[in-house]
Specification:
Structural class: mainly alpha
Mean pLDDT: 75
Strand content: under 5%
Number of strands: 0
Low-confidence stretches: 50-58, 293-303, 481-486
Largest sheet: none
Number of helices: 23
Amino acid sequence: MIDALLYLTRTTIRNRFAVQARRLRQPRYALALILGAVYFWFVLLRPAAQPSRAPTTLWNNAETVTSLGILLLMLGGWVFRGERMALAFTAAEVQFLFPAPLTRRGLISFKLFRSQLVILFNAVIWVFVLRRSGSVLAAPLRFVGTWMLFSNLSLHRLGAALVRTSLVEHGRAGFRRHLPAVILGTAGAVAVFLILRDAVPTIRAARGAGEITHAVERAADLPAARALLFLPRLIVAPSFAQSTGEWMQAAGASMLMLLVQLLWVIQSDVAFEEAAVQASVERARRLDARRRRSGQSAAGAGKKVKRTIPLRPSGRPAGAIVWKNTLLLMRTGRVGSVIGLAIMAIVLALPTVESRGIDGRFVAIAALMMVVLLIVLGSRVLQNDFRQDAEHVPALKTLPISGAQLVGAEVASSALPISLLQIALVIVAYAATLGDEGLPIPLGLRTGVLLMSPLMLITINATTVTIQNAAALLFPGWVRVTPVVGGGVEAMGQGILVTGVLLLTFLVALLPAAAMFALVWWLLAPLPNGWIIALVAAAGVLLGETWLAVRGLGRRFEKLEPSAS
C-alpha cells in the first residue's frame, strides 16, 4: 500500500509539471514564467554580500516577535472553525482512497506525507530569505531549522482540528478524553488576555520604535508570557540560532516537540473519515467559489442569510446590479484583505513614532497611508464588479439595460465602497490632528482637503476600477478573472505583468488631468484658493475619460458573443 501511495504522489507531481509545461506554449504563460523567474532571482537567488553577525538585541527582538506570531497561529487552530480544513482531501482522494483498504492511521500518515512536500518547498525558499536577514548559520542548518518550524506548525494545526472534531463527535466523552489539550488552549487564551492588559498601556506610552520594542520585550518577560511563549520559542529557536552550537541545542528540543506532536496526531481517536469527508466537501465548494469569484464558502451555503438590503420592485435596472454586488460584498466581504492593508499602513507609519510616540499625528499618518494603499490596491481587493460576473455574460445580456449602464453599475459597485472607506479614513485623520498646533499644514488647508476628498477619491477610484473591468472584458485571457489552479512561477509572473500594465495605464490616464490641474492653477495663481478650482477641473477631465471608457466598454459588451465569453 505504501508503494501505491508513493506512486500516486509521484504521478501527481509529474502530471502537474507536465500541465504547466504545456501551458508555456501560450505566449502569456511563457512571458509570465520569465517575469516570475526574474523576480525569484532578484529576491532570493541573486548573490549577496556575506552576511555579518546580526546584532544580538535585534535578533532577540525578532525572535520574540516571531514567537508571538507562532503563538497566535497555534491558538488559531483551537479558536477558529476554519482550521478543520487541515483535514481536507481533494475530491479524487476522497473517492478513491477512502473506500480503499486503508486504515484511519494510514490516511493521516498520507496526509502528513503530502503536507511535507509543501513544507520542504517552503523551507527551501526560506533558506534564501534567512540568508539576507542576517543569519550566519550554514544553509543546511537553516533548512532543517525552518523545516522543523513549519512541520511543528502543520502538526499542531492538524492535531487541533482532530481534537475539535472529536469534541463535536463525542460530546462529553471527547471532552474528557482531550481534557489536557482543552486546558492548555484555555490557559493560553487567558494568558494572552493578561499579557495584552499589561502591555498595551506601555506600548501606547512609548515614544519611538525603540521604546515600542522594549515595551514588547518587557511584556514578553511577564511570568504568564514566559510560560505561554515556552513552546513557540522551542519551535523558532533553531531558526534564530547564531552559531552551530546554539543550533544543536535548540534543534534537539524542537525535534522532540515535533515527535511528540506527531505521536499525538497519529494516536488521535477521532472519527477521522467522517470529519475529513466534510472538510473535503467544504474545500471543494470553496475552490469552486473561488473559480467563480463568488467568494461563497460552504459554511454559508446552507445557512439562512440574515444580512440583506431591501430592493424596490420597480426602478432602474442599473440599481439592481449595484444592489446585487453590494450584497455580495456584505456577505462575502474581504475583511482579511482590508485588515492586511491596515497592518501595512500601520507599519509604513511607524517611522513617524520617533520622538513623538503614538499620538494623533501617528493615527492621521496611518489613516492616510491606508487611503493611499486603497487607491493602489483597493480595486484589486474588492472585486464585486464585472470581474465577478464575467462568467455570466449570457444572463447579463438578457437584462433590460444598455451596455454602458451595465458597465457603469459594475464600476460603481466597487468604486463606491472603496471611496466611502477612504472618506471615513480622511475624516479620522482630520479629527486626530485638530488639536495639533505644531502641524506644519494649516487648519484651513486641511479643511479644504477634507471637503475636496470625496470628489477626488470617487474620481480616482472610478478610474482604477474602470481599468480593472476593461482588462477583464477586453483581455480575459491575460487577466486572471478566475484563479489558475495549480499555478506556479508563471502564475506569479502573470500577476506581476498584469499589475504593472494596469498601473501604467492608470498613470497614462492621469496625464491629461494633471496637465489641466497645472494649467488652471497657473492661470488662477493670484487667487488664494485657486488650487480648489484646479482640482475640480482635473477631476472633471478624469471623470470625462472614465465616462468615455465606460461608454466604449458598453459598446464592446453589446457586441460580445455569449459563447465567446
